[in-house]
Every structure is written in C-alpha cells, then in structure tokens.
C-alpha cells in the first residue's frame, strides 16, 4: 500500500508505528486523588494521591486517506488496553512504554468519492 503520511517510531501501539500527525499532539499529566481527598471544615486541603502524573495524549490528523485510516484502525485493539510507546515526559529523546487505552475516537468524511477523511481525532490515556 502507498501512504501519503510517513510512519513515525515516536508513537507506537503494540509495537506498530503510528503515522506522524499532521496537526497538534497534546500531552497532559494529571494526579489522581482518592475519593477521601478534600477540604476539611477549616478549608485546608487533604490530598490522598493514589497516582502521580497519569498521561494523556491527544492526537489529531487534519487530513487522512481511507488506506491510512484502515492501517491506523488495524493497530488499535477493538477493546481493552495496549502498550503505547511515546517520548518520555522528562526527556523527549527517550522512548517510554505504558499500558493505555483509546478514547474519544472521531473523524469526518471529507470526500466519499476520493476516500479522503478529515479531523481524525483520538485520545490515548494511561491505565
């Protein structure tokens, strides 16, 4: 198959490279607090952190072909989690692998005749 986008080893799903995004890739990290966390009656915050810096990566492809969509969908499992390889949070030159799942998958069909899609978006969230 002939693809218009290059594959990138920066981002991999179960060892298969993703296409290099042609739009922004957002990185965010969030601490997860236990349900017992909160403020007491004097307003002092008492945090019970169960996990620190849980990662979320938001991908967007502004334009993508039918063949490229088929490839991308083939590397993601239909259910469950997967190993996601990405640049480390602290050193982008170092690859890091984490267990993740995909969420908020969406796309728009730009032209059914030519097989062109747009706004292919999804989030990859650390388990």
The helix/strand series, from N terminus to C terminus, equals EEEEEEHEEE
How far the N terminus sits from the C terminus, by CA atoms, comes to 33 Å
Q: Which structural class best describes the helix and strand composition?
A: mainly beta
Oligomer: single chain
Helix content: under 10%
Number of domains: 1
How do the strands of the widest beta sheet line up side by side? 2-1-7-8-9-6-3
Q: Number of helical segments?
A: 1
Could you walk me through the main structural features you see in this protein, from its secondary elements to its overall organization?
The chain contains 1 helix and 9 strands, in the order E-E-E-E-E-E-H-E-E-E. It has 127 residues and is mostly beta strands. The protein has a single domain, classed as Elongation Factor Tu (Ef-tu), domain 3 (Beta Barrel). It has a 7-stranded antiparallel sheet with strand order 2-1-7-8-9-6-3. Strand 4 and strand 5 form a beta hairpin. The two termini are 33 Å apart.
Which labels suit this protein?
single chain, about 130 residues, mainly beta, Elongation Factor Tu (Ef-tu), domain 3, 7-stranded antiparallel β-sheet, 1 helix, about 10% helix, elongated
Quick summary:
With 127 residues, the chain is mostly beta strands.
What is the fold's blueprint, element by element?
Blueprint: E1 7-13, E2 16-19, E3 25-33, E4 38-39, E5 45-46, E6 49-65, H1 66-75, E7 82-87, E8 95-111, E9 116-126
Antiparallel strand pairs: 1-2, 1-7, 3-6, 4-5, 6-9, 7-8, 8-9
């Amino acid at each position: 198959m002939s693809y218009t986008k290059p594959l990138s080893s920066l981002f991999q799903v179960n060892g298969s490279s993703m296409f290099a995004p042609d739009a922004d890739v957002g990185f965010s990290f969030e601490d997860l607090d236990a349900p017992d966390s909160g403020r007491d009656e004097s307003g002092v915050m008492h945090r019970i952190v169960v996990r620190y810096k849980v990662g979320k990566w938001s991908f967007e492809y502004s334009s993508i072909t039918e063949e490229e969509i088929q490839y991308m969908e083939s590397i993601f499992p239909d259910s469950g989690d997967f190993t996601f390889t990405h640049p480390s949070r602290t050193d982008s030159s170092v690859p890091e692998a984490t267990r993740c799942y995909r969420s908020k998958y969406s796309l728009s069909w730009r032209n059914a005749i030519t097989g062109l899609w747009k706004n292919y978006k999804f989030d990859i969230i650390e388990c």
